[in-house]
Amino acid sequence: MKQGLSLRVSQHLALTPQLQQSIRLLQLSTLELGQEVDQMLDDNPFLERCADEAERESFGLASTDVPVSQSDREAEVAIYSVADYQDSAKVKTENDSEDTNFQADDSPSWDGDGSVSLAPDDSEWGGEARAHGNNLSGDDETDATELARNHESLQSYLHRQALALRLSAEDRAALHFLIESLNDDGYLEDELVELARGLVTEDLVQVDDLVHHFTVALHLLQSLEPIGVGARNLAQCLSLQLKAIQNDLDSDIDLDAVDVALRICAQPMDLLARRDIKHLVPLCGAPDAAVRAAITLIGRLEPKPGRRFVDVERNIVVPDVLVVKVGGGTQPKFQVRLNPEVMPRLRVHDIYANALKGHKAGGSEAANMQALHQRLQEARWFIKNIQQRFDTILRVSAAIVERQKSFFTHGELAMRPLVLREIADELGLHESTISRVTTAKYMSTPFGTFELKYFFGSGLGTEAGGNASSTAVRALIKQFVAAESPKKPLSDNQISDMLKEQGIECARRTVAKYREGLRIAPASLRKSL
């Protein structure tokens, strides 16, 4: 092998820690941003939350509605264009086999002019924002986190009922075990023998004894509220609820319909799902009208008894942007502003920053002082990047409102087709930046709170040569279905023809796609029996 020296020319993209943080903050949701802020407050001693009214910054809430200067636009484009370039191309040369993904130094450096946009006292921005807040008003209102904390699970609800039963220690333990084995829907999916073998695998006598206790406990479990809990499948769940109706002396439901419904539940469930009355009539030995009445009764039962106990994550959607109608007349105007509830009030700790500035160290302390200066600069950049995030959100939101004025005046039927490229070209940003801004960010409008992505949609051709927004077409489909006759629901072909009468070219398959997206059942399942 011959040794030698060679010179290679290559290109690669490098992201500084400041730029990485700016991009990460831009794509975070409001909840994730709050977690990021809390984490930074814990990690960085130079950063603090400002609880009192502080002097407003030059880039604070007072100037958020002011048009962005050309110099600020160029700076923002420079910040995001490096990251967005990765989404459109990978830079590589013929002689360079190294990966060109974004790279940063192993030891992040926060050096730079992150403080140039800050006032000398490093005070907070967004002075109208509160440190913490929610959309509940009044001191006596219950906090959302407290509501979630007080949520009772299905298992807890069943355990409370089990306390009222007089059981032996073995049966009580078996009932407790079965309750804990239920899934979120309230079903017991595992076989009793399998559950027993999971506890004692060797002694067959103990397995049989456990199965006996489980069988007793299962009957007790299925007698608890909500009715249908502990069922092995859907048919048994519905049957348990129907039998409870039969045993209810105060019920005014026709017992003949209950009897036919029980016979239907004994048949394959796919016949019930398809409402196949033609096959159910001979199988159940009941007339057509009785089968229809029984299916209607079954439709009022709860197929998932544990549904209302599922502890879904209760995140309250707090809008990032507020759109308020100002003025009246035929041409109303809309004001777009940031929601102060979601804007953190942060500042650099003055005492620590001044102490660090006035302290000079040499020798062994120089390295420690350098690390502290890095943390101080990191705090300044964090404040600046948060400000950059909200400014970008505000600019994009204002552009969306300008393009969708008809929606804010007349509702979703007046929505116009809009794609990310239109907003990107108008603001001089990359499409991926617009995508980051519009993901998990919400806007409060006169018609409700919507994700920013809601205002984007493809266009369908019209007879007049224009385009109709897919969002408006979905609204029309929803309107048609709401006004249809329950006995003669509209088919997808009929909806397609109705849209053509409105001048919108929409194929049957497109109608079916939009209908499924709206979670509207097919015509056969919407038909009233």
Explain what the structure shows.
This protein has helices at residues 17-27, 30-43, 70-88, 144-149, 154-162, 169-180, 192-199, 204-221, 234-247, 255-265, 269-273, 277-284, 288-298, 350-358, 365-403, 405-410, 420-427, 431-438, 470-482, 492-501, 508-517, 523-526, and strands spanning 47-49, 321-326, 333-338, 346-348, 442-445, 448-451, 459-461, 467-469. The chain contains 22 helices and 8 strands. It folds into 4 domains: 12-128 and 317-456, no CATH class; 154-221, no CATH class; 234-309; 459-526, Homeodomain-like (Arc Repressor Mutant, subunit A, Orthogonal Bundle), CATH 1.10.10. It is 48% helix and 6% strand. β7 and β8 form a beta hairpin. The longest helix is centred in the last third of the chain and has 39 residues, at 365-403.
> What does the radius of gyration come to?
32 Å
Mean pLDDT: 78
Shape summary:
extended
The helicity comes to 40-55%
N-to-C CA distance: 86 Å
Strand content: 5-15%
Which strand order spans the largest sheet, edge to edge or round the barrel? 3-2-5-6
Instruction: Quickly give the structural class.
Output: alpha+beta
**Main beta sheet, described?**
4 strands, mixed
> How many β-strand runs?
8
Order of helices and strands: HHEHHHHHHHHHHHEEEHHHHHEEEEHHHH
- Please tell me the total number of domains: 4
Number of DSSP helical runs: 22
